[in-house]
Amino acid sequence: MRKISAALSVIATVSLWISGIGLVLMTAITAWQVFGRYVLNDSPSWSEPTSVILMGWFIFLGAAVGVREGYHLGFDILLVSLSETPRKVFMTISDLMVIFFGLGMGWYGWSLAAGTWNDPLPAIGLPTGISYTPLMLGGLMMAIFSMERIALRFSAAAPLVEDEVQQLDTVA
């Protein structure tokens, strides 16, 4: 389990780097678009669709990493007051919901990407389906990361529950 978790940690780190680079690129492209529109009076046609595609990448990959790291919002007041066994049950129910949600995102993202892959985006010439690829990958990563959380929670390999409790205690 530790080897799988280490591999998923690398995937999460790479995803976070891609998200950060995408955010910086989107900011630079948007700044160029504003400069082109108001200073040069000639806005580049490729900047808006490129920014939207980059935004999808950093939002969905970043959200998947947020699921893995436990940074998403939650109603934690009940969890802080519970003993370990009920806490594990409630956290697992939450992770199961995220798995189903992530699998739904992955399935419908794939369906949207496959259905629009042959339609090019006019301004940049890329397939329209590339806009839905981060939805698919982000959803699948959310599901995989939630499965990892459940496996770690119930294995003796890693004290995930204690780490989760410490995170809850710092919030409360």
Written overview of the protein:
With 172 residues, this protein is mainly alpha-helical. The chain has one domain (2-171). It has 6 helices and no strands. The relative contact order is 0.15.
Spatial shape: elongated
Mean pLDDT: 87
Largest sheet: none
Structural class: mainly alpha
**Helical segment count:** 6
Query: How big is the Rg?
Result: 20 Å
Q: Determine the strand fraction and express it as a percent band.
A: under 5%
Count of distinct strands: 0
Low-confidence stretches: none
Order of helices and strands: HHHHHH
Question: What is the domain total for the residues?
Answer: 1
**Gap between N and C termini:** 30 Å
Helix content: over 70%
Summarize the model shown.
It is found in: Cell inner membrane. This protein is mainly alpha-helical and 172 residues long.
Features:
single chain, 6 helices, mainly alpha
Task: Give the SSE layout.
Blueprint: H1 2-38, H2 47-69, H3 77-81, H4 84-116, H5 133-154, H6 160-171
Helix pairs in contact: 1-2, 2-5, 4-5
